[in-house]
Specification:
- It is built from 6 helices and 13 strands.
- The chain folds into 2 domains: 230 residues, Porin, CATH 2.40.160; 113 residues, OmpA-like domain (60s Ribosomal Protein L30, Chain: A, 2-Layer Sandwich), CATH 3.30.1330.
- Helices cover 30% and strands 36% of the residues.
- With 396 residues, the protein is of the alpha+beta class.
Amino acid sequence: MMKVAVLSMVLAAATGFTLNVNAQENGNRDENGKIVRGPYETNRLGDNIWIGVAGGINVFENSFTDIGGVNPALDINVGKWFTPSIGARIGYQGLTASTWSDAQYPYFKKMGDNGKYKNAFNTAYIHGDVLWNISNAFSGYKETRTWNFVPFLSAGIARSWKNGVANNELAVGAGLLNNIRISDRVDLTLELRQLIVRQGYDMTPAGGVAGMSSATFGVAVKLGKTGFKRSHTDEYAGRIADLQAVNTALADEKEDVENDKAELQAENAALKKAVEELQNRPPVVEKVMLDVTPGAVFFEIGQTELSPQELFHLDFYMQNVIAQDADKVFTLTGYADKQTGSAKRNQQLSQMRVEYVYNLLMTKYNVTADRLVIKAAGSEVDRWGNPLLNRCVVLE
């Protein structure tokens, strides 16, 4: 039990040291301090392979109270990392082991001073392991990290033999592999393993569960291409999708602009024709204009300010009206074209147009506020029966 306790203390110390080293790593974070993780490019079959050789000790525990002696151990394995965090290996682990028993069994070697029989035998564990690099999984991949903390699960065939007798058992285990980086190609390894086999692996009577604890120190040499490259496939796909969305939006916008252009050209032609008709009208006697016909100024679609031609018409109207009646009270009514725009927008346009003319009369023609009444009719009233003419302000 003392030997098991010593191995447990070594395992705890190695774990604590490894976590401390990992906590100090800071070369694998982005500009915001966030750990950078995968995805990574798939490596080739011959990449990220290593061969490891290690030596140390093992202790066979036939039960919690029947613990054998300390014997030499040898580890030989070949492994591959499939991702920065997941790997696998196959290997051999073993050499010799020993136990004590109350009776003589096939692996008997000698009688001890305590009256017990010492059993010594050869042992070999042919296994496959699945490895998980916790350092890369939690702290992000970093090829130059000094210490990597790699727990693993193991399964295979354990064989014991001596004196012409052999025993084969299924075995499972778990352990901790510590990789200590020396260079791009060489790592030192410190490995702690606990193997579980059927009691009687040492040819003593079966009936329960036995174990084999081992601790080895060695070297691993990397073959082929080492390291992993971060994959940018998702990033590129995201950028392509964004560009395609922008392109679609631009195409839709272009179509809308073309439609607006055609509509504006038609409106402009209609306005031009209306202006020509207005300009070609014969002069109206001022008296008739005042008594019969209200004044009106017309706006282009969506506009709240008058064109130079309409400013000219307003000036002509005001000069003649004021000349006839300097005290006239003007009623200004703003309209909009209900063929385009919403009712709310047209109401706003008519309000802005009538306020614009209101301000002109006060600032340019010195008409006082008490002589001005303004109204905003929006587009609900079809004053002239013509969309082009309904974009106006009428002065009465």
